[in-house]
């Protein structure tokens, strides 16, 4: 019989590439991970790993087993969801991970609704960058998480997770209210100073690509990852920036927002097979209702 936990470690190795990375993701030592994978090889009866210099790679059998292991893990999630569906009332922890603008604008309404409709739930929110959400879901530190990307920077889906669309946002060019903008707004600010997210972030990459498509490279004067800070700097005439709709709900005085064709897309993600779990379904419904209320505002 193949051990489910060890199958999870094999899937992690497929995704992360090294024993050390798998150990960090699971709070194990590299030696413990190696021992668990060796035990899985004995259970499978075939070699699953082969040495490649200082690292390891999956054998053909290892790749086949990892592919089927994803299906096994998803089936276990569906089984858990089916058992939960026959219980009376929703109870237990619901751990939600979301990026800062969603925590401020969407989560409060959703949490109130969940608390009123399902008082047995233990609601817990963690503010996370979207890039950290998949690992937190896989490691069961979260039950539901919000992911986003931009149409100019699509993110490759994680095969171990399922997701449904939640919000398709307008992206705005934020400029000082006194800035003379005529014609194409991006070309009008090609020589302006820019307020950009930190290099390597999704927002930084999206800004760079949007500007490149307009025929220039943005000149970063300030770096800020929190949109409240970004808008405060724009209001202080420190530069221009790109801001998604969730962050632009209440801009400070002195900021003009110009809609662009670029879109930011947010999805609700959870472990593969968990879509029918009553707690997951209740959370998705509450978030969608919150988005509807936000858009009506």
Number of domains: 2
Mean pLDDT: 89
The appropriate CATH architecture of the largest domain is 3-Layer(aba) Sandwich
Helix content estimate: 40-55%
Secondary structure class reads alpha/beta
Q: Quick one: how many beta strands?
A: 10
* Major sheet: arrangement of strands: 4-3-5-10-6-9
Biggest β-sheet strands, sense, barrel: 6 strands, mixed
Beta percentage is 25-35%
CATH-defined topology of the largest domain: D-Maltodextrin-Binding Protein, domain 2
Distance between the termini: 55 Å
Q: Number of helical runs? A: 11
Q: So what's the CATH class of the largest domain?
A: Alpha Beta
Q: Measured on Cα atoms, how large is the radius of gyration?
A: 23 Å
Uncertain ranges: none
Q: What sequence of helices (H) and strands (E) makes up the elements? A: HHHEEHEHHEHEEHEHEHEEH
Shape: globular
What would you note in describing this structure?
The protein is of the alpha/beta class. It folds into 2 domains: 81 residues, Winged helix-like DNA-binding domain superfamily/Winged helix DNA-binding domain (Arc Repressor Mutant, subunit A), CATH 1.10.10; 209 residues, D-Maltodextrin-Binding Protein, domain 2 (3-Layer(aba) Sandwich). The protein is built from 11 helices and 10 strands. It has a 6-stranded mixed β-sheet with strand order 4-3-5-10-6-9, sandwiched between helices. The model has no long low-confidence stretch (mean pLDDT 89). Belongs to the LysR transcriptional regulatory family. This is DNA-binding transcriptional LysR family regulator. Pfam families: HTH_1 (PF00126), LysR_substrate (PF03466). Keywords: DNA-binding, Transcription, Transcription regulation. GO terms for molecular function: DNA binding.
């Amino acid at each position: 019989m193949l051990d489910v936990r060890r199958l999870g470690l094999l899937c992690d190795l497929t995704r992360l590439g090294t024993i050390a990375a798998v150990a960090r993701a699971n709070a194990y030592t590299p030696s413990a991970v190696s021992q668990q994978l060796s035990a899985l090889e004995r259970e499978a009866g075939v070699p699953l790993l082969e040495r490649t210099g200082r690292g390891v790679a999956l054998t053909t059998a290892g790749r086949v087993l990892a592919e089927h292991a994803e299906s096994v893990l998803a089936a276990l999630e569906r089984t858990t969801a089916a058992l939960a569906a026959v219980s009376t009332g929703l109870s237990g922890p619901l751990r939600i991970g979301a990026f800062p603008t969603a925590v401020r604008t969407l989560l409060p309404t959703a949490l109130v609704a969940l608390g009123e409709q399902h008082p047995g739930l233990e609601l817990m929110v963690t503010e996370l960058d979207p890039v950290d959400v998949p690992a937190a879901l896989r490691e069961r530190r979260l039950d539901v998480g919000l992911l986003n990307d931009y149409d100019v920077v699509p993110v490759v889906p994680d095969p171990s997770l399922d997701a449904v669309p939640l919000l398709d946002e307008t992206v705005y060019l934020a400029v000082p209210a006194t800035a003379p903008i005529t014609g194409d707004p991006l070309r009008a600010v090609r020589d302006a100073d820019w307020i950009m997210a930190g290099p390597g972030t999704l927002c930084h990459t999206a800004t760079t690509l949007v500007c490149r498509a307009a025929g220039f490279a943005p000149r970063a004067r300030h770096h800020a990852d929190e949109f409240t800070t970004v808008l405060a700097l724009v209001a202080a005439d420190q530069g221009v920036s790109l801001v998604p709709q969730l962050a632009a709900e209440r801009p400070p005085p002195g900021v003009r927002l110009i809609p662009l064709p670029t879109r930011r897309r947010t999805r609700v993600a959870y472990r593969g097979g968990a879509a029918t779990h009553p707690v997951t379904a209740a959370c998705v419904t509450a978030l969608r209702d919150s988005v509807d209320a936000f858009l009506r505002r």
